[in-house]
Design goal:
7-stranded mixed β-sheet; alpha+beta
Length: 311
């Protein structure tokens, strides 16, 4: 049974630090972490990339347990993201497909090989940039200090304004970096003309026992010219292998049939220059327990989304 970090006790600790109420159930054949979310119409449970189970029978037992807890907490629906896409056919009839919250498709690089084999999976152009980085005034540091998250936040704000996308708050990212599984990487560049050093890229990664998840990242215009993200990604991968991890999860790619204007198109093209493989998850589904409240919730949510776009 493969268990993603979002369905672990470590992730529950993060939820506690974010002042979120959650339920963690661990059985021999299934496991889930359900986060209790509040709305004006009542509560719902959310299982990010869960529940996980050994087989279809165990998955149904997990859903039954989730339903019991949902009733105890007066929930009007349960939001699930089965980690195994094959389990979607075992969802009940009162299930509605909704917008995916966590990426449905992702790109995985296998690290369980020798250094030469791993290097052959990395883009040769980026490897050249990586090997010559120090000569060009580029260095990379690692931090576990929550106050350093400001460097990532500042870079992300610029990117968000350019691409009209939303980002996490400083407090949220600070809380993430405070977790034992989290590391912030900072790419420094010493400009030879000014002799000044600036942060040109940053990345936040999470590690569990076998996988490094590449969750957050951004770079400046200067960083883009220096290929800072590419250099950083090589470092993230090499550090993960040195740590003994088995895989590097690039965390999300656009689907195969995505239009050319898909917001993840550029990210996806970059990630696929690495010799990985695509992994498909089930996507996000809502198991509706109270149809009237759920419809009100959906309508209100749609209106709020339109208002945010207009604003």
């Amino acid at each position: 049974m493969e268990i993603p970090i979002t369905q672990s006790k470590s992730w529950q600790k993060l939820q506690e630090d974010l002042h979120e109420e959650s339920i963690f159930i661990e059985k021999k054949d299934f496991q889930f972490l359900a986060i209790k979310k509040k709305t004006p119409f009542g509560n719902y449970l959310y299982c990010p990339y869960g529940p996980v189970a050994n087989d279809a029978k165990a998955f149904k037992l997990a859903l039954s347990s989730l339903l019991d807890h949902a009733k105890q907490h007066n929930c009007f629906f349960i939001r699930v993201e089965p980690f195994d896409a094959n389990f979607t056919k075992n969802l009940p009839k009162n299930t509605k497909k909704t917008k995916d919250l966590n990426p449905k498709e992702t790109w995985i690089l296998n690290l369980d090989s020798d250094d030469d084999t791993l290097n052959s999976k990395l883009p040769s152009r980026l490897l050249r940039y990586y090997k010559s980085a120090e000569k060009k005034g580029i260095t990379i540091t690692r931090s576990h200090n929550p106050d350093d998250i400001k460097q990532l936040v500042d870079l992300q704000k610029t990117l968000a304004n350019q691409k009209h996308i939303s980002t996490f708050s400083t407090d949220y990212l600070k809380t993430e970096l405070a977790q034992p599984f989290s590391t912030l990487y900072l790419v420094h560049y010493q400009n030879p003309e000014t002799n000044q050093t600036e942060i040109v890229a940053a990345g936040l990664v999470f590690d569990d026992e076998t996988i490094r998840y590449n969750l957050q990242g951004a770079q400046s215009d200067t960083g883009r010219k220096l290929h800072a993200t590419g250099i950083l990604t090589i470092q993230l991968i090499k550090d993960a292998k040195d740590k003994g991890l088995k895989a590097f999860d690039f965390w999300g790619i656009a689907p195969e049939n995505a239009p050319k204007n898909h917001p993840w198109r550029g990210f996806t093209e970059f990630k696929k220059t690495f010799a990985g493989t695509q992994k498909d998850h089930a996507g996000t589904y809502d198991i509706v327990l109270n149809t009237f409240k759920y419809k009100l919730y959906q309508v209100t949510r749609a209106i709020n989304m339109k208002l945010r776009k207009l604003g």
